[in-house]
Description:
By secondary structure, this protein is of the alpha+beta class. Helices cover 27% and strands 21% of the residues. The chain folds into two domains: 25-238 and 518-538, 3-Layer(aba) Sandwich (D-Maltodextrin-Binding Protein, domain 2); 290-511, Dipeptide-binding Protein, domain 3, CATH 3.10.105. It is built from 15 helices and 21 strands. The longest helix is centred in the last third of the chain and has 18 residues, at 484-501. Residues 1-22 have low confidence and may be disordered.
Amino acid sequence: xxxxxIVFLLCLTLLGSxxxxxxxxxxxxxxxxxxxxxxxxxxxxxxxxIMWGVHFIFSTxxxxxxxxxxxxxxxxxxxxxxxxxxxxFYLHTNVFFHxxxxxxxGKGRRMTAADVQYSFDRLIDPATASSGAWxxxxxVRAHKxxxxxxxxxxxxxxxxxxRPLPEILSMxxxxxxxxxxxxxxxxxxxxxPCGTGPFQFTYWDEGNTLVLHKNPNYWESDTAGKRLPYLxxxxxxxxxxxxxEFLLFLQKKLDFVNGLDxxxxxLVLTKKGTLKPDFxxxxxxxxxxxxxxxxxxxxxxxxxxxxxxxxxxxxxxRLAINHAIDRNKIVTYFRNGVxxxxxxxxxxKGMPGTEQRLATPYDYNPAKxxxxxxxxxxxxxxxxxPVILQSPEANVDVCNFVATQLxxxxxxxxxxxxxxxxxxxxxxxxxxxxxxxxxxxxYPDAETYLAFFYSKLPAPPNYxxxxxxxxxxxxxxxxxxxxxxxxxxxxxxMDSLISSQAPVVPLFYDEMLHFTQNxxxxxxxxxxNIIDLRRxxxxx
Length: 540
């Protein structure tokens, strides 16, 4: 009886009335979140499901366009001081928070620079325990790092120059929140969010349904002057399997699906990653670059008990591993053409500034791999101790293929399947000598990949414990450069150095698969897999 009541209420909420006339049809965008949803508090936007929800409800100073350029959002523009230590942001003055009982008369008030200061102070406050505090920790000055000069001028003071700051500020962690609503709800702000975004929180039956309504007071308009968003509502379901999700999509009960369950890939996709003929006129597929590198990591800390006597401390052995793996086969046969073989470095294709590479490509060349092993003193693998490749269950097929190829050149390799959480713990404690992992960009700057190898950072991100004074010097120089071409040249040198030392084995640069129904238009995304629904329309 209770469930029937909920369904009835949802019908009223979403559609105004189940008996409304066809001409009054509301546009409700429906998708599923198989990973569930832990919170809608941007201070804890640590995974994609949270990031999407936060992105709909909240806004940030900057945002990332589909071409990965960082563009203004709440901030109309910004300036950088000559010494690179001060960023001044000039804010829009027509942005209002959603209506909320915490405000006088329940009406959303205007957002000001004081709200930005509060939001960032809250993010780094140890009492908040935000998973995003790292964004500003050790980057901003200790005393009053954030300053509201007036209602529309906001300043960030840095300890050291950090050129990718505008890129970082686009992250959902940096969403602007209202003090009154946060203080009213405390920790329960997670389920009572209030922001300035295109959609406002309406209803959340955790584990079942999330409903967001159009924000009637959203500040952005289209080029014709029509207020955004076009959609009336967004409805999120939480079926916990990707297979069920795609079946619902094929039944037209969902408007959008992100990615594809492995059981469907051969049914839906060709080996080139395109739709098979049976689906070409039924659904839409957008395949594009996803800033994610799938890789094998090698612990290269000579002082670790885990690497004592390990042949993988030898650079030539690591290079041999890189040349022993056929990345084209991995992408074609295990990924149905989804992905780009990672032969040119750790930084994925599509990242700004990586158009010209200096790294020597890792071509598939078993003869070269055998030569490198011989030069290292292990002809045909003679004298090599067995190695264990630790893998999450989701990647075991690829890792078994890798193990076969390494065994073929004489490197005795076995795969150990581990729970993802346990494997991450071992990687963080430098207890995983050889492991399968992925590195997803947090923001559209190659620094997010190069920090992975900076010796002064812990694990994460430096899971391999790579240590090179030359690399560290270049990394520190790149952060101080306000000249993008110069910075990109340094990035290329760093990426080349990493390729020559091979603490990682890049396998492939990922691609996104976004499926939408044929009646969906205006849907957009960027290579960070942040989806934008502001201009979505649903046809009949």
